[in-house]
Amino acid sequence: MTSVLITGVSSGIGLTTARSLLDRGYYVYGTVRRAEDAAELAGHASFTALVMDVTDRPSIVGALDTIARGAHPLTAVINNAGVAVSGPLETLAEEDYRRQFEVNVFGLLAVCQEALPQLHAAREAGLPNVKIINISSVSGYLTSPFTGIYSASKFAIEAITDGLRRELFDFGIDVISVAPGPVKTPIWTKAKTQTKAYEGTRYEYVLEKIDAYADNAAADGVVPQVVADDILTALTTDKPRPDRLVMKKGWLARLVTLLPKRTQDKMFLKRIKENRRY
Ligand SMILES: NC(=O)c1ccc[n+]([C@@H]2O[C@H](COP(=O)([O-])OP(=O)(O)OC[C@H]3O[C@@H](n4cnc5c(N)ncnc54)[C@H](OP(=O)(O)O)[C@@H]3O)[C@@H](O)[C@H]2O)c1
Description:
By secondary structure, the chain is α/β, with parallel strands linked by helices. The protein is 49% helix and 13% strand. It has helices at residues 12-23, 39-42, 57-69, 94-124, 148-168, 187-192, 207-220, 224-236, 250-258, 261-274, and strands spanning 3-6, 27-32, 47-51, 74-79, 131-135, 174-180, 243-246.
């Protein structure tokens, strides 16, 4: 049986995707930062929990070593682990904007680097569907105010995905981005607690709306299974579309990316003025 590695299976998209892959007969290695967070999946015969923090290189090396010594050759990596730092770019603390990139960008790249020798080996052994799937976001296509640093990390993931795919083309390893719009996961509750960068600044007015914004986004969002299903399609299809926007009215978001930036600005400004979201 071949195996898939998914980072960040303690909740949300990672947990749902792990369940879906197990249901379809995959062997799943799922990473958590605390062993107890894998409790729900741990009872499954085809699941191994690995304790990994993507900002801690030795923990990545250790996890990949465990997989290499196991009985299930690794054929795919789903880079799902991520955090969403919110706050005005003008006032964000340096440790917070650095953490955004440490987890979402450098952590993802480190997992790719450590996993690739095993993916090359899988290809050389003739195994099919050898892939890296990076969980990006619609924020990797469009930048909203007050989540600019998150957006920057997801734009970076899009670039790494394209770069890797083009570098690995000759070796038969495909690299895909799955970019969800809002999804009903705990990430939105976590966003509500990030008030520090607004407090005592000229952006304090945003705080009044931050809970409503998070609640609306989660309420309007798709359930994680929709993203898991798309990941499954990307995993099992030969040459799937490599830039996969997974959201209601995804076509509209793609259209907006084509508009002149000043026109995009007006759309974001209108949203702020209407006070619908902020
Ligand atoms: N929900 C959305 O609306 C949405 C939309 C677009 C894209 N996404 C992306 O989808 C991915 C999953 O997010 P989610 O919505 O499912 O949120 P979530 O429920 O908060 O899951 C995030 C996962 O990442 C893990 N993680 C965070 N920091 C980590 C680190 N340093 N090392 C290893 N694992 C770490 C978390 O583990 P802990 O429990 O230990 O923190 C958790 O398992 C993220 O990349 C996110 O940016 C989400």
